[in-house]
Amino acid sequence: MLGFRITAGEEHQKVYLDTNTESGTSLKRVSCDQCASKLFAYTPLWDEIVSVAAGTLDDFDTWTPDTEQWCIDRVPFIKRLPAVPEERSFDEAVKK
Question: Can you tell me the distance from the alpha carbon of 31 to that of 16, in angstroms, rounded to the nearest whole number?
Fold first, then answer.
């Protein structure tokens, strides 16, 4: 997980291996073992990408998304982010 680090509460992380993936490779989903909040997810197929739950971020003034994932499954009420590359699926992005 390049450039990603936990700043507090690492001792409360619980990892769940999600094996129900299109790629067949397990997705690691990390949550808090105290409150069950979803924190982030990552896969060994793409080490430089970590999907962080937006509710865990403290400062949206210094962070903005740089990629949208799984746009093929976007629900109609979620609009495309302007000037942000879209990946229709994980496999499509990996092949680039």
Answer: 8
